[in-house]
Each structure stands twice: as structure tokens, then as C-alpha cells.
Amino acid sequence: MTAATATQRTGAGSRRWGLPAGTFPAGLRRCAVPLALLVLWQASVGLGWISTRTIPSPSQILTAFWDLTVSGELAVHLLVSLGRVSAGLAIGVSAGTVCALIAGLSRRGEDALDALLQMLRTLPHLALVPLFILWFGIGETPKIALVALGTAFPIYLNLFAGIRTVDAKVVEAVSTLGLTRGELIAQVILPGALPAFLTGLRYALGVAWLSLVVGEQINASSGIGYLAMTAREFLRTDVIIVALIVYAILGLLADLIVRVIERRALVWRPAFIKE
Amino acid sequence: MSHTLSRIAASQSTIDKPVVSVRGLVRNFGNGNVLDGLSLDLQPGSFTALLGRSGCGKSTLLRTLAKLDPAPEGTVQLPEERAVVFQEPRLVPWMRVLRNVTLGLRRPDAEARGLAALAEVGLSHRARAWPLTLSGGEAQRAALARALVREPRLLLLDEPFAALDALTRMRMQGLVETLWRAHAPAVLLVTHDVDEALLLADRAVVMADGKIAADIPIPLARPRRHGDPGFIALRSRLLAELGVDEEHLAAREPQRTESRAIGVKPGGYGLPAGAAAAPSL
Hints:
The complex is a heterodimer of chains A (275) and B (281).
Chain A: H1 2-16, H2 26-46, H3 58-71, H4 73-105, H5 107-121, H6 129-136, H7 140-164, H8 168-175, H9 181-216, H10 224-233, H11 237-265, H12 270-273
Helix pairs in contact in A: 3-11, 4-5, 4-7, 4-9, 4-10, 6-7, 7-9, 9-11, 10-11
Chain B: H1 2-13, E1 20-28, E2 33-42, E3 47-52, H2 58-65, E4 73-77, E5 82-85, H3 97-102, H4 110-120, H5 136-148, E6 154-158, H6 166-183, E7 186-190, H7 194-200, E8 203-208, E9 211-217, H8 229-241, H9 246-249
Parallel strand pairs in B: 3-7, 3-8, 5-6, 6-7
Antiparallel strand pairs in B: 1-2, 1-4, 8-9
Helix pairs in contact in B: 4-5, 5-6, 7-8
């Protein structure tokens, strides 16, 4: 939808400048500015206008990427990072979901949990790093705990709100159909809260990478963050940039996965039906 | 059809055990009684219209009969097989139409019955559709099928046509009459619309101040027409019971088809059923 609108706008624009809209394919027109910047970047570094200490050229970054890939170093660190994020996410999402179910489905659960979690939520979880190091040492535990803590709250908040905002009229109508409470929860309330849960999951994935970046830059001996930190000691800006790009790609992929899940799970929404 | 009609006639002539029996029902919402010692019997297979001004307690009564509201004082006897159709369709958006219809139906042939019910309301072709893609009339027909498939002995209709456009409303009224004749549940129709009550019901019950203010039989032959002398006479009587001065309305008569709920303020569309009386939690 957005892409289509953007293309139309570009088309109208090029007509205004006297260029027929069909001269270049739409994809190429949209890539033109980033490509031009890339060429400018490469030229600036190549001509010595920018020091490679500040930022290496795109070709140098590609070379570093290639070297790290061939040596297997990148794969090792990537797997370690992915492992940490997965473990942390699994714990955080589970904990957030369980708390949201308890608080969302019963008034007593809400009384017991909600105020406490709302208080903890306001604490920036990354500020807990020093405490986590004292508690859990410098191994894997503090890093996973950091991811888990960061991801539990977006899941809790969104799922709790989702459960509580399921259309009360629909629930009332369904309650006249003779469903048990378990069936009502499983078939009506939880599917109704799913869109909110998926929104929470997207937030959680963003927080997970953020927590990982912070966690891996402190006392790590492996992972993408470690790769970037050791590169700093050897002034390898190219490797640092590679690490940044890997983080960006991972974030994009994670978002893509949730979008695919949304598309499959929320087919009943008119926005998805029309496509 | 004719044998169904004679069966209804037979069930009404003999003094059956009522399918619904309400005695001394009291419901209090803090500032006065919404239901104030109300008593009402519904015979099997009868079609009763429940009329009254906004806030008279008719929606609260219907919600009590649907077991959506408690009955703290008084006795309420109800059949197990009950079904409700609300002003809004209230379908579950993430279940296809057929699944909505069969929801909670515990029998091996649920799907076949669901399809049969959808066929009866003329919605077979939409069985696999998502509810949010249905038109208002289609969604309300799906809600009717969801009620029908339960083979209710008591069918509660809470202003089911109020949110529909005039043409769709007329078709839905015809459909409800057909379905009632075919399945003969006891129907309680809450409505603001005197004409709708006279078109469909055998009996009009007018509520005021939490009690039954008038209980008027409607012995008109079917199909009924607005212009029939009997219809007009009963219409005057019902409007009088509702406290509407017909002479005063004479000037507005030509607008009758546009706004048929004369004299009784239509409850705000989009408000939950019973919102006038029941504070939503």
C-alpha cells in the first residue's frame, strides 16, 4: 500500500520534471538515491577525503564481511548471539505471557500482579547490568537474563491489554452459546488478544536485540557484540560496521517473521482479506 | 406449513405449561427498581412483542431471561434451550460464518446442522466467509442461524432489526416470521416499533416502571398489512398504552415509513443492549 502510494508520487514527480514515468523501472528509481550515495561514499574514501579510521569504504566493508564469513568467525559469533536472543526471548515471552494470562483472566490475578509489574516496567532494564553482573557473574546468564527481562514487559503489557479489550459484546453473546470457561478462553478471548500479543512480540524483538548489544559489550568472549568490541581495540572500523549491519539484518528478519505470522494468524481482518 | 400452523393453534388453545414463567421479579440498580415485582408467562410457540419507553426495564427483563443478568428476587423458570439475537450481530470475527453458527454445539452432526441453518436464512454461499466481510443484513442473518441451530424453545430477540436499513429490516421481519412458523419456538421480541410488533406478534406486552402495564392479544390474520382496519385499531391502542397522542402525530404521518418507531425514543444505536438500565462494568 505504502509502496504503491510512493510509486505514484514518484511517477507524478517525474512527469512534472518532463521525464516520462516509464523511463526507468519503479524499483530502479527508488534505489537511485541510495546507490548514488554509495558511489559518493566509495569515491570520498578512495580519494582520501575521509580517513578509513573514521569510516572505511563500502568495498573495504564488503571485504571484511567476506573474510569474516570465509574464516567462519562470523558464523560462530552469529550463532552465539542468536542462541542468547532465542533463550532470552523464550524465557521473557513465556514469563510475560503467563503473567498476562493470570492478570488478564482473573481479577485476583490482576490485583496480585499488575501493580507490581507496572512499577517494575518503569525501570530501564538496561540499568540493571551492574546488578546482574554481581548476581550472575559474567557468563551467559546475565546476558540471557537481560534479554528475558527486557522482552517480558512488552509481551505482558500488550497481551494484558489485548485480553481486557476483547469485544465484551461478542464475549457476552458467546456466553449464551453454552461454552465452558476453558473453551471461551481458548476459542474467543485468546484469539481476540492475538493481534495485541503480536504487536507486543514485535516490540519484544526490538528490545531483545537492544539488550543483546548491551549485554555482549560487557565481559563477553563471543557474539556479535564481542566482535565489535575487539575490533575497536584494533581500530578495525570495517569489522565494527559489519557487526552493525548484521544487527540490522537480524532485526529486519525478526520483524519479517512476525509480519508473516500476523498475515497467517490474522487472515480474518478485512485489511488482510482484501489483499 | 398449514400443519405447523394448526399445531401452533393447538398448542395455544390447550392450556400448556408455560415455557417461561416469571414471578415477582425485582431488579434494583441503586436508584429505584428497574424491575419491580414483574410477572410474565410465555406459552410454547407463542410470539410476544415486548414494548415500552427507553429505560422501562424491557432490556433488563430480556437479559434476565437470557441469564445474562441475575434474578436476585423472584422466581424465573426457563427452558434449557434458549437463544438470543442482539441488536448487533455479535459474531466472533476470527471464526468463519459456519464456525460461528456451530460454536458451542455439542453434537456429531453440528456442521450439517449449521449448514442447514445457514440455508434456511439464505446464507449458504457465505458459510466460509469471514464475519467482517458480511453486510449488516447478512451478519444479522448469520446471528439468526446461530440462534436457530440450537433448536431453542425460547428465542429472545433484542431489537434485532433496529440497526438495519428499512428494506433489509422488512426482509428480516419476514424471515423471522417464516422461521418462527417452521420451528415454533416461544419468541420474545423487544422492540421500539409498534408496527413491527403488530406485524409479527400474537401478543403485545407493554412495560412501564418495571411492571407489565398492558397485555394485549393481537388476533390478526396473517399475512398482515399496515392498512388493515384491525391493524390500525390495534396500533392506536398500543400507541395509547405507550402514552403517545396519535392526533398530535397526524401531521407527521407521511413520514411513517422512514421513522416507524413513533412516539418511543429509539434507544441510541450502538449502545449495548440494556445500556439504558444496566451500567456496563
